[in-house]
Structure formats: structure tokens, C-alpha cells
Design goal:
Layout lengths: L8 H12 L4 H15 L5 H5 L9 H11 L6 H4 L6 E6 L7 H10 L3 E6 L6 H4 L1 H19 L1
Parallel strand pairs: 1-2
Helix pairs in contact: 1-2
Length: about 150
């Protein structure tokens, strides 16, 4: 959704403009929630939003990434140089980093395993907590076998 070609990019930039506004706190809160809903396409939204949160978005970093870094950033040429085992994971409905990017990363790494969270958007560690814990456990086993 940060990519200018994404259909969500225009909406995201509108949200960012509202979030930067020093006035209209209620509109900032509403747009912050819209941004989070875009990231969370899970049935667990109610569970996530019931937890305390500062409600703040790290705006300067998102702006820098969206407008400065992303247009010229390409990791594909570097992926074949990675010599350690990698786990790539993604939510099936990830709006920020769509699944096809994770699949492309996985295909270009020498030793990797792709985990797809079938009911998740951008936050599988929240939306698919049990599967995430299992993935981390698998990764620990792999790393221990590699180092021994």
C-alpha cells in the first residue's frame, strides 16, 4: 500500500495528511483507526482493538519510507547473497506487503521457508498467534541444528 501503484496508496496518503494535522484530534483518531483496519483484515479485530494502545502512528518513518526510500529501494539483487536460513512469513491478506512480494523474496533466497498466515493481514504475530509461536519454534530448531 506504500507503493504508488497500489490501489490503497492514494487513500493512505490522505490518511497520513490527516494524521499530520495538528488540529482535529478526533479526525486523527478516526484516521488512525482506519489505517489499522487496513492492516488488520482478521476476524480478531475486536480482540486487538480492545487492548490499550497509544494510538500513535510513527509518521515520520512512514513518510520517509513511502516517499523517499521505497521508490529507489530494491532488495532482490541482494537476496542471493544471504547465506543463512531464513523464514519468510506473510498474511494472505496483507495490504502493506502483499503476499506476492513475500513469495518473490522466498524464491530468491537460497535457503528459506515461506509461512503463509491464511487468516491474517499485516500482523500475523497478533492475528495468528499460535501459528506464529509454532513458526518461531521451528526456526529455533533449525538454527540449533545449523550451529551444532
Amino acid at each position: 500500500m506504500y507503493c504508488p501503484k497500489s490501489p490503497l496508496n492514494h487513500k493512505l496518503k490522505e490518511i497520513f495528511a490527516v494524521l499530520k494535522s495538528p488540529k482535529k484530534k478526533d479526525m486523527r483518531t478516526k484516521n488512525g483507526l482506519i489505517c489499522l483496519y487496513i492492516m488488520l483484515k482478521s476476524v480478531r479485530n475486536k480482540e486487538y482493538f480492545s487492548k490499550p494502545s497509544s494510538g500513535k502512528v510513527v509518521q515520520r518513518r512512514l513518510d520517509y519510507f513511502s516517499f523517499c526510500d521505497l521508490p529507489k529501494y530494491d532488495i532482490l539483487t541482494e537476496l542471493t547473497k544471504v547465506k543463512v536460513p531464513i523464514f519468510v512469513y506473510c498474511g494472505r491478506y496483507d495490504a502493506q506487503c502483499p503476499l506476492y512480494f513475500s513469495e518473490e523474496i522466498n524464491e530468491n533466497l537460497i535457503e528459506s521457508k515461506l509461512y503463509i498466515y491464511e487468516r491474517s493481514n499485516h500482523l500475523p504475530f497478533l492475528e495468528g498467534k499460535e501459528q506464529f509461536i509454532e513458526m518461531v519454534s521451528d526456526f529455533k530448531k533449525l538454527v540449533l541444528n545449523v550451529t551444532n
